[in-house]
Structure prediction request, 307 residues.
Amino acid sequence: MSNLPACHFFPSEVLEREAHRREDGEWLDRQLSNSPRFIFVWRGNNLFSVGRNKRPLALEVPDPEKVINPIFLGIQGEGAPLFAANLSDPQSEQDALALLYLNTDLARFIPLRQFDGLLSSEERALLFYSRSLTHWHEEQKFCHRCAHPTLPEQGGHILACANPDCATKHFPRTDPATIMLIHSGDLCLLGRQASWPEGMYSTLAGFVEPGEKLEDAVFREVKEESGIEVKNIRYFGSQPWPFPQSLMLGFFAEANSKQIIRGAELEDVRWFQVSEAREMLVKLASRFPHLDTIARRLIRHWVEASM
Ligand SMILES: [Zn+2]
Prediction:
């Protein structure tokens, strides 16, 4: 178990973010007039086509300059600009679709976790990116220092307070969370929350606290949830998880002991044999088949290294 590889399964090559050009308003305006495509989000739901071949939709619109608060995502291959936009005003899905000259026979706004079609890893990366930013725009409509409205800057990657006496610039939030596969010989430690489907277990996870190292967060969370102390904490890989704004940081660690003292957060936590963990992978894959998850990646790597 000493050679579990690091993992980079979440694609980063789906577009150039061009972060250094976001300050150039004229350049951004040119991107808006260069047949951009938009990933629209309404109330946290992404836009998908309906019918047999359900796909996420990135739309060209007749008047891109009229889209309210476009958020610049980046440039795709061949120089195609891609934006996100949060449709927060329409009260109903029908109204939101009508703004885009669509109806429910053609497209639906669906919660990303409930989408039941297939996604490529590139599509998933773009949907995660746009969902994170539109969620932040929804949450940061007002300055939390002085309660004045905020206005987008730098292609929507900054929301600046409109009150000149305050002028606070707000930046998108990403909340780090650790997720870890704890093992001991041919056993691994999995837990379940009461709200999960019956019989489903997964890796332990928890948010990093202010002033805390990632390794200390792994140690603390495992101890809180299972009573087990761990050693040899090793980084595995990361995955954005925009529900609403997490970055999951995956680790492996070895247990110092096997005796479990379950904490209050989980309904159950127990040791799994390799064969049981492999069966659990099938169950986990049935929950969010289109999203992939770092939990599945961690368990799969451990199962494969243990066989
Ligand atoms: Zn303010």
Q: What stands out?
A: DSSP finds six helices and 14 strands in the chain. Residues 143, 145-146, 148, 161, 163, 166, 168 surround zinc ion (CB under 6 Å).
